[in-house]
Amino acid sequence: MDHSAYERMVPGSKTAVLMIHGIAGTPAHFRHLIPVIPAEFSARSILLSGHGGKVTDMGKTNMNAWKRQVNEALQQLLSQHEKVYLVAHSMGTLFALRAAVEQPQRIAGLFLLAVPTRPHVRLSTMATSLRVAWGKVKETDTRALAMRDNTSIHIERNLFKYLTWVPRFLELFAEIASVKKLLPRLEVPCLTFQSHVDELVSIRSCNDLENHPYIHNTVLYHSGHFAYSEDDLQLLCHRLKDFLK
Fold it and tell me: I want to staple 189 with a disulfide (CB 3.0 to 4.6 A). Which of 102, 108, 109, 173 is the partner?
C-alpha cells in the first residue's frame, strides 16, 4: 500500500479539497474517494508527522505538530483558492471541525468519516491489532487486512515500542473533549458517516452529531473503522460527488 501524500494542483481553480487521515492512519484511506473529486478542483492529502515510518517515530511527534501541519496545508490552499472542502477520517475529523469553527468564511464544507466523539475499543479489536502487529493476518480476515492496509506505520513485533504511543493517545482524548465543546459553534455544512460496527468509535457518537442544524449524519450499517462494504463505499462516493457540486 502506498502511504505517500497525494497532490493535484489545478492552475486557476477556485476550489480545493484537503484530506486529513487519522492517528496511525494513511492518506491511502481516501484512495476510493479521490476519483470522484471534480477534475477542475485542486486536491491534496497530507501525511502527518510521525507516520509512514517506524513505530517509535510516533513518540517523537505530538498533537500540536499535527495541528500546525494541517493548518499550514490549509492556509496554503486558501492562499490559492477561494474556498476549501475538508475530507477527513477519525482524528482528522477533529482538525477539520476545529478549522471550520475558527475559519467558517472560507471552509465550504466538511465530509467526515468516523468522528471519534466517543472512543470505544472492542476486545476483538485488541486481538485484531495483535494479529496485525505479529504479521498473523489471514487473507480471509477482511477487518485485519483493512487495519493493516490503512495503517501507515511499519509494523513491528516488539510491542514495548508501542508504549511511545501512549502520550499521543492521551493528547487525542484531550482533543476530542475540546472539539466536542466546539460543536455548538459549527456553522459550516457538514456530512458525517459513522460506521455501525466501528471497532474504535462507539455508535453512540451519533448522539453528539444528530439534531445539529449544520450536520447531516448517516449510519453505515455494514462498515467498520477501516473496512467499508461495497454498498457503503458506493454511497460515500455518491454523497461526496453530490456534496462537491
Answer: 109
Distance of alpha carbon 89 from alpha carbon 30, whole angstroms = 9
User: Residues of the chain with pLDDT > 90: what percent?
Assistant: 74
Between 86-100, 102-116, 148-162, 216-230, the lowest mean confidence (pLDDT) is in 148-162
Closest CA to 236 of 30, 49, 77: 30
**Does the pTM exceed 0.90?**
yes
Sheet containing 215-220, strands listed edge to edge, beginning at the edge strand earlier in sequence? 7-8, 42-45, 15-20, 83-89, 107-113, 190-195, 215-220
CA nearest neighbour of 120 among 201, 223, 180, 195: 201
Residue 56: CB atoms within 10 Å = 16
- H/E run at residue 233: helix 230-243
- For residue 191, CA distances in Å to 59, 110, 188 come to 32, 6, 10
Grid coordinates given for 140 = 480471509
Lowest mean per-residue pLDDT among 20-34, 147-161, 171-185, 209-223: 147-161
In 58-103, where do the E strands start and end?
Answer: 83-89
Mean pLDDT over the full length of the chain: 91
Contact 16, 81 (CB under 8 A): yes
Q: Which three cell numbers stand for residue 53?
A: 515510518
Strands 7-8 and 107-113: unpaired
Would you state the cell numbers that stand for residue 57, as one nine-digit string?
517515530
